[in-house]
Specification:
Elements (H helix, E strand, L loop, with lengths): L2 E4 L6 H14 L3 E3 L11 E2 L12 E4 L21 E6 L2 H9 L6 E2 L18 E7 L1 H11 L5 E3 L4 H9 L1 E6 L2 H9 L4 E5 L9 H7 L10 E2 L18 H6 L14
Length: about 260
Amino acid sequence: MAVPLFWHQADNFGDALAPWLVRHLSGQDVEYVPLDKADGPIPHLVTGSIFKHSLKRGIVWGAGCAYENEFDPAQIAPPSDDLRIIATRGPLTMQRVKDAGHTPVTAGDPGLLLPRFYTPREQPTASVGIICSWVDYLDVHVAYGSAVPVLNASSPIEEVIDTIASWDVVVSSCLHGLVAAVAYGKPVVWVEFSDRMLGDGFKFRDFLALFDVDNPKPAVRPGVSGLTDEAQLFEVTQSDELYACCPFRNKDCSAGHT
């Protein structure tokens, strides 16, 4: 039986991570189910800034928002069989959900569970590397590529993880580049290369609030010599609770590495 799932079907690490994680957590295949399909199974929402699509229907486990004022808590339907909010990406979204009368178990991005399922393959190492969205990739590669490795976040999932794990410090303009780096114990720098990225920075602030970072700001197009000046190392303490409350987790087997 397939797990019903709604995700943004794009060639982007954070979005593509949703079906990958669901397969590893459930041991089952995944079925894409649009949220406007009222007579079908209720879909899960996992990684990605897709929370706004689930204000009336869905099973939310880890989804978040791209913009701070993306929804009014009054727009969220009350808890029911059609709408269950189990976990949000971060505590900022969680508070708004609580204001609407829901009681999520925890906050945390499911990407933090990556090390439970995947051991990175050895790659050439680097003291620092950059991962960025495809919208900035060409410009970033031109500006930094002669000095440091630059990775397109649209690369295959396991290639992204392998590469991130091979860098000592990860500089990222995409959220799930940061999430994966934090999951594998890497110091990170949130950076902004342009204004082309979707959102107003809320998804980063929401995620970083898990680690009590108050109102973080990105480094804006830092020079090569200053790429690691604002690097921070975060300790992941949310993964056990997030894993335990996963609604489609296969409880008959423990997480295994590939």
